[in-house]
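Why run this: before we spend reagent on co-expression, it is cheaper to look at a predicted model of the complex and decide which construct boundaries make sense. The entries below are exactly what would go into the expression plan.
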Amino acid sequence: MTQSVVVQVGQCGNQVGCRFWDLALREHAHVNKVSLFTSDGGACGVGGRIQHLKARAVLVDMEEGVVNKILQGALREVFDSSQLLTDVSGSGNNWAVGHMMYGTAYREQIVDKLRKAAEHCDCLQCFFLIHSMGGGTGSGLGTRVLNLLKEEFPDVCRIVTAIYPSVEDDVITSPYNSILAMRELTEHADCVLPVENQSLVEIVNKIKHMSNDGKPGSVIKRDSTVISGQGGLSRTEKPFDAMNNIVANLLLNITSSARFEGSLNMDLNEISMNLVPFPRLHYLVPSLTPLYTLADVSIPSRRLDQMFSDAFSKDHQLIQADPKHSLYLACALIVRGNVQVSDLRRNIERLKPSLPFVSWNQEGWKTGLCSVPPVGHCHSLLALANNTCVKPTFMELRQRFTKLYRKKAHLHHYLHVDGMEQSFFSEAVNSLSSLIEEYHHLDATKGRLLPDAPRFGIAS
Amino acid sequence: MSVVNVQLGQCGNQVGHELFDILCSDAQEGKKEYSTVSRERFFHRTSHGELEARAVLVDMEPKVIRQSLSKAAKTGRWRYGEGSHFSQKQGSGNNWANGFCVHGPRLRDVVEEMVRREVERCDRLSGLMVIMSVAGGTGSGVGTYVTQCLRDTYPKSFIVNHLTWPYGTGEVIVQNYNSVLTLAHLYKLSDGILVHENDMVHRICSQLLNIKHISFCDVNSVIAQQLASILQPALTADSHGVYSRNPLGIDWQVHPCAGLERPRSLTGPSFNTSLANLLILRGKDVFSAETGGFEDPALYTSWLLPEAAFNLWKSPMPFKYEKSATLVSNSQALLRPLDNMVGKAWNMFASRAYVHQYVKFGISEEDFLDSFTSLEQVISSYSQLG
Ligand SMILES: Nc1nc2c(ncn2[C@@H]2O[C@H](COP(=O)(O)OP(=O)(O)OP(=O)(O)O)[C@@H](O)[C@H]2O)c(=O)[nH]1
Ligand SMILES: Nc1nc2c(ncn2[C@@H]2O[C@H](COP(=O)(O)OP(=O)(O)OP(=O)(O)O)[C@@H](O)[C@H]2O)c(=O)[nH]1
Ligand SMILES: [Mg+2]
Ligand SMILES: [Mg+2]
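The model came back. Tokens follow.
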């Protein structure tokens, strides 16, 4: 059995992380209750009753508020103080403060905590890093932690869940922070799962709308895992909770193969191997279906096929993107619940004609089946698409960055920080531009029928 | 004469288990002589009288091996040896380079030692069989490495690789790379490569056996049956009425006859030119069966005499069915799938997609190019048969 460690950094990272732990524990309890599987839990490192479970996690924030709240809440038993690292004043939405100042000051302590977490694993396979791109701690210190992981554990896979700010984000410097962080993610992560707050908001609104609709037959089940934390340890729903639940479900699904049995396992180290054809192009767009289950469970087979179709539609993507009208480099389908290999094959065959794949990877599908569905669902699907549809998100971010940078707005806050130089800004934006360019080149091959590469001739 | 098997990776261990199970139950039903010969080939008796497979199990993750061991033990008829398996904690992540360059060298000593023990248990060794898939990381990468070690240690022994070829799509995106690297290496190491294509076997399950929800279990049982039918005792041309003691014992090498150049048959281009065919008949009426069709010169290349290129084995013992025939064909049948596989891999390689994943573990672009070159050579040679 392999294990993973979650490293949650900053307010967003910790809030999302805690939704994950809450739902993971609920899933564990639920599965054990119906005794499908007695598990020692894999990724969440759990065993026995919930009281005795400890999360394989490291919690980092440069202010105390968020982490303290966690310690007062229902999850307090799951963490112990040796896993936490906090300071008092936060990074003030400044990447440089997080990355340079705190990164240098806390380096030893962070490495120490990471090592301790690693020691508790008998085969550490993957680090899941969670942070926002907009604030200072998550984006700055979070990406510093990423570098430390690469230095200290070069063979352990690094998967980053990064929350991108929406256009109306209240953090004015979020474009700076995001671009500075992007460069680190592009260079040092094995995979990045980008999530946009805007998309989370839209999905949450849609679900709300559905549940208020009141049409007979469209009553939404209350206990399904994506929309609600009910049945978890924490009762009260805070702002962001509904959004964070969606991200937590992404993490639950991606780790399902490591936590439960299945007929077609997808090991975590197979994700980057199969989905990342070029080292920098490791941004995998997630989409999650179904987002809710209807109380009425008739016509299950159509529902199942609908689930597959939805995974490719615009409004199920966790970023603002339309994969169907862009170019797929590769795609993974991680399916949970009572689904057969034949269902997978049928749906891939059905959907393939409408999905443009890059010429050299027409059969770029990777699939995994885990027999245990999420709580409240009979099946679920997480699609991870390496798709050029990330390009618009990145271009828009660059535009917002340029708007600020042209006026040199707020720059001095960054340049004050020890070790921070103005060249970091230009290097970061260049890195992003060349990334965009790489996607662009691939996009340009779309629809063109490339001739097969000429093969070696053998003289007879 | 005995065969020592090495089963690697998920597929190798699942197919291997199924194979031993069929070999064991078939021998149980057979006549004394047949049964004795079969037992000696694939099993040895422990001091407690139990049947133990002459097998070594290797995987980089523990789950599949654990299942194979316990499934075998549960049959009550046979089991795997106590110290004949080796696993680690995490798989090779579908990466041939990880299996070949990292895991292979690391477990070399352990595996060689396990194989040596099995070999020493055989009164006479007729050969080694390595069972693996070509698409993942462990079976393909570690399997290739282990075959190479076996070649070094047993330079004179007959080594056969049984390979499961991947489905066209849906499981491992880099499967064509892994396959190309495996095949190019094995081509130089192995004495014979037996291939089952998952798509073909799947079709057998759906169209001939009418199975609705086809699982790997169904597929493996077809593969194991065909394989067992090749490996179980049979009467060969030179065995004079006793079961040949050497299951792998035909001369698999093809020797062109000097100066022979037959005129091509006039029936038009041959659909599938063979180098050599082995037909195995089992069950009722095997001695009166008409097999002349297999000796039609039109089936073979112009530089081989049909009688040199065709082998016929028989056994009156029914195998699974009242009558059965198994054909092992060294022919152009694999040309198209091989050409497809190499073509897709080459297209990917032209963009250098995924190559960095291999470079990371020590396989260079040069290594890829070498592999492509040798396989193009194989393709070209087979194309020129017809
Ligand atoms: N989805 C989601 N987004 C969040 C959450 N908390 C903050 N954000 C977003 O994250 C960005 C702000 O970053 P934070 O994570 O709050 O900042 P931080 O990492 O704590 O850094 P400092 O506060 O500057 O030290 C904004 O874009 C917020 O919209 C959350 O719980 N869920
Ligand atoms: N026929 C058959 N094919 C299988 C079976 N299991 C896996 N495969 C095929 O094997 C290929 C995948 O290789 P595996 O054997 O699972 O991989 P592995 O050797 O364990 O290597 P890693 O898991 O990458 O370390 C795919 O083409 C599958 O279709 C099986 O039981 N029967
Ligand atoms: Mg904060
Ligand atoms: Mg495996």
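The CA atoms of residues 301 and 346 of chain B lie 29 Å apart. The domain at 2-235 of chain B is CATH 3.40.50.1440 (Rossmann fold). Bring this page to Monday's planning discussion.
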